[in-house]
Amino acid sequence: MIGGIWFRRFPRYDLMNRCITFLFSILIAILSLSCSPWEIGNSRKSLDNTAIETVSAKEEPQVSFEDQTEEVVGHAERLIEKNEREGAVLDQRWYTLKRFGKYQDVVFSASQIVFYGGLEKDVRRQLQNQYASIIPVENDQDPGEIRLFFGERKGAQYDLIIIGQNGKEVALKTIIRLIYLAKFVDDETKRKYQNKLQSFNKSLKVLMSSRTAREEFMGFLNGHGISNPDAVMIGFIGDTRAILRDQGIEDPKSYSDESLRVNWYTSVNGMKVLLVSIDQSRIFASRSGELIDAILSLSGNKPPYLIFLGSGGAIDEPEIVGKIINPTIVLNGDPFPATPGVLVHIIRNRAINKAAIKTAHVSVENVVVETTRWATEMKKDRIRTVDQELFHIIKAINSSTNARRMEIFIGILVTDNVSSDAKTNVNLTLEHAEEAILKTAGVRKEFLSKILMKIGILKRDETRLPDRNEITR
Asked: Which of 102, 402, 406, 466 has CA 20 to 30 A from 133's CA?
């Protein structure tokens, strides 16, 4: 594996892979004997995992939804129990009420609360015969955030339908907040919904689309004619626009829907530049890795420069809050499910300079993972910073055929602190992250300007990196 190393490594399953390849070849042979030439081509397309990239709207495959209630709700319950047992600096009440506080009556009056992970058009098609009507709880809900709908039945009964991104972490985050919501109700609400609250978790349901995030992204990028970018810049895209605007470069085309929010420059000093927003969960956690897969599949043998400026937390190092750090390795820090080995990805980070703060980094699926005990264990392993996307981004890059040819620049703006003592550093928690972001515009622009200069998007100088074609494989 390029760029990744296994700790407590287990045997590879080469024999199994050879058997699968052999069986696949037999299957193709059988199809070729039993189908006409037209049918053979379409059968092969259906077996190709990239078929979605070329299929037309009329040929779009039927989307189904898999019930993952037991897995997601059970996982959420375990994480909450662990969080409460071990303690944490995260204010769970704030975390919950920030999103669902004003919807308590809507949530507790519903017969069922059903989370659908997927595109709204697919959800509506799935539900077209189940409800008398599907009405937004509020108008003008941001298409990138989870959206709430009344699934109305005959009479006064309704289900609360929540449509969010097709990503396991998005579903998990939503279910955790809903379970906490039932825990944090006041006495009046407890009396009002006494029967509902006693079995609230049983009213939760999770269904996930068979249309993958990668397929969503491919449809979006193809639909807007975005391909072969020379550089992809993820995160804080308003900062990059401002830097380029100051250089006299016109604002780019903007495209946005529930899958992505992007800016597309067709020519900046002869380079095509794609800016991707992280806001509103569009590329949250593992969805970010699938975005990288989609972009690389549109890039052929010329992978783009990748610049990622994300946000994350320090692990018991409040002194680096408000600064941009440069990770050198990243690993998956989730406690469930238990895995026999820990995969550590090495980051060939070209953003590093002599003065840079270098860290060993970890990504988690949900902030509820970040307990005080977890922080203590991370410190023992010399892990200094945490986020939710970077592991998936680097994993996708290191899994690609052009991994060694890619130039990547990674920075994490540290916005909060995960303490090993729940009573300390209470003013540097996730709740205060927005304040840190507001204070760091200058730091972010300086970081991005240096990289734009290095890769030639801004006026080139002697520090320019070698052209990708000059880099040995």
From this structure: 102
